[in-house]
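Researcher: Going back to the complex we discussed earlier. I've cleaned up the inputs and rechecked each line, so this should be the final set. Can you rerun the prediction on the complete assembly and write out the structure?
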Amino acid sequence: MRRRHFLTAALSIPFLGTAGRLYALPAPGAPRLLIVFMRGAYDAANIVVPVSSDFYYAARPTLAIPKGQALHLNNDWGLHPALKDSLYPLWSKAQIAFVPFAGTDDLTRSHFETQDTIELGQPVGGSRDYRSGFMSRIAASLAGSDPIAFTSNLPLSFRGAKPIPNIALNFTGKPAVMGKDVELIQEMYQGSELASAVAQGFTVQEEVYQAISAERKAASRNAVSPKGFELSAQRIGILMRDKFNLGFVDVGGWDTHVNEGNADGYLANRIGELGRGLALLASTLGDDWDNTVVIVVSEFGRTFRENGDRGTDHGHGSVYWVLGGKIKGGKIAGRQIGITEAALFQNRDWPVLNDYRGLIGGVLQKAYGLDSSQLATIFPSVQPDDLALI
Amino acid sequence: MRIVRSASLLGVLYLVACAPTTTAPPPPPVPPQFHAVAESSAALDTTPTDIAVLNRLSWGAETSDAQLLKREGLQSWVNRQLNPSTDDGLPADAVGQIAAMEISQKTLVQINDEIRDMRQAVQARKGTPDFDAAQKTYQQKLNSLAREAATRSLLRDLYSRNQLKEQLTWFWMNHFNVSQNKNDLRVLIGDYEEHAIRPHVLGKFRDLLAATLAHPAMLEYLDNFQNTNGHINENYAREIMELHTMGVGSGYTQNDVEQLAHILTGMGVNMSGQPPKMQKFQRGAYFGEGLTLFNPNRHDFSDKLFLGVTIQGNGLREIDQAVAILAAEPATAHFVSRELAEYFCCDAPSTSLVNAMAASYLQNDGTIASVLRTLFASPEFKASLGQKFKDPTHYAVSALRAAYGQQVILNIQPLINWLNRMGEPLYGHETPDGYSMEEAAWSGAGQMETRFEIARMIGLGHSGLYKLPQDAGPEPAPPPQILQTHYFEAMAPNLSLATANALNKGQNPADKNLLFLASPEFMRR
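Model: Rerun complete. Updated structure for the full complex:
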């Protein structure tokens, strides 16, 4: 049980205190968890397509993915063709599962509000503590966890009592502060409480740069270099393979009110890029992909019917993804209903049948062996949901 | 139409809408003027305390402010910071840049009219080949308005003699945070800072609260424009109580939030330029100034019980009453005092300090300058000097002040980029809570390394600050020589041995600049 091994191994590591993280490789075989947040509410119904629903085709005269073009998942569901060479192979290997009707109980249909809801992971309707995100509560619950946000700002989900580093993956050029200056700066901080953060900052920046320039050399031979999210995902793969075991990244650009496209077009391009990125992440992790779980979320789904601008508006239920080398994938998981007009929530959206906190809580329970009191700290008043994916 | 002017909120509204705007003609482009950093021959004769107080009460100590402080005496200088003259003492180059801005030359209503016309023109092109270009032009216009606001704000941070006032402008913008990324807030953000926040930063908290409540930026940002009788939106009401006044867990109830939401019904914005439709009997209760609107047709006129006080349902005056009640709450006095102490003193101010500040607040009708006077006089404040970790804005602005003093930059973009890269974009915080003032929020590994990279760029002196954005070619300004300034001379005795040793090992002026700006001492204020 490699996953269990992490927990026992982690418990034997003494708590490192508040003066900054000591730098250590993740325990061998330690499970890695990455949350990918699609900010802007992606149009789930056009990516994981309910091909057996006549209503889907009736509700989306210009947007629907034609049945013949959707990649076969099962009799009821098909996958967007832009994911053919990236995520579809993972489906064949049972390394990805889709959880439709997933989301939150936040009904504001505000991106902003609902992203906060997800990142805070606190009960909706109560007063919010903006200084306590669910990722930081996960980090606090896992002794020896090595968390990082692959974002220029520390995201809400990572805010909490204990400082967590963030690395902006778009500023990963050659560190210009180098050589003698690095030594002199570290000398100035010697013995101060910031010494470890300063040292780690140089190390991580240098490692990211080294890793990236190595990839660049490889890329110049192959003549194709990744960009956008693919590039970020590759960097995340390197960093989570070698250094960190609890990560977060966000990807924007999903708010498709107009000219969304169908098998081709705007959304196809965006999702294609995301899919290629995740596939690159998996291959970059190498053997460690077997010990990695990636959960892809978005704040809500979009209206099931297309609007007058060949787009979709803010909705409710979405489809979340769970990926990993050893997950029990290749299936559509969680509670489901047939997709008819009558099944729509408020006659416009997919309902939410699978709460994201239950989904993530269930993964944590299985992968890390967290007990119910620990899970209650991470997601108060929500039961973990065992979707039989781990 | 009849406009009611009895309540004090209306007075604020009037000020907001009718504040004079500068109408000076745009001056010709400012020719770059470079002089060696303005240093008189005489060394500063300041005490370490002088420099430490200057560093805390300003955006960062620099030579010319230190000279002013010395000439005036510390106590008198502090008093003047608490009671600033209307002349900010900006250098002429900065005055010229600000006067040339569209946001200085037009009222918000004029700007909004133009934006509305542009938006309609874009929509009219939908489906035509021109649409994308029109849309792009429109977005560029919004960006330009927001960039003007940011430029004006940062120029004042860098060069105003009323340094405490400018810090407080940032502080209260953060306390009453709105994000320019929502809707069309890029149009409103400059006016919000200029007319709702900046005039009140040292005055009565109640006026500040009322002015933010009357500004379209806030009414849009926290959705009160959608809060109407029968369709209650509690968003703003909740944040007023939780983030703006009393603070979470201070004793108000869900019912108080709901009652406040009902009180706020009808308070919204009017971007159309036309008065709203309403019935004849409601016209007396209507209020509209600028883009702010109180629409009686959308207001719940029933009586409310708010924080134990019965408020008669009579329209806009209900809001005034609620503002007065909130501003007078001891919980508000404590909450505001704690935040001020966190920003101007220490991450965890003592209860006794906060209590003393709150007492000052309650004795002085919520006068912010009085609260600060109590803080500045406290032993805890003195003990904290040099200890408070700079947030990114303090870091970048103080570095430019140390490097260039009053030599006015021509291109703000590098500074804006640095703030973005450090994760504290001006007007860019998405959530209503504002940026954290705690060290832990800014001192992570990646964030420290980013500071060092920025220290290096400032130290080298060719980031493009002193050439217009369209000018190609190298930076015409010479690199700064921070270690040659009187400011450095004055603060050098406070440097640790480790820092002094490192500076001695610096190989050239640029390297020494980097090391000084990267030093532990320069991370704190």
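Model: Worth noting: Residues 1-7, 10-38 of chain B have pLDDT under 50 and may be disordered.
Researcher: Good, that matches what I expected from the previous run.
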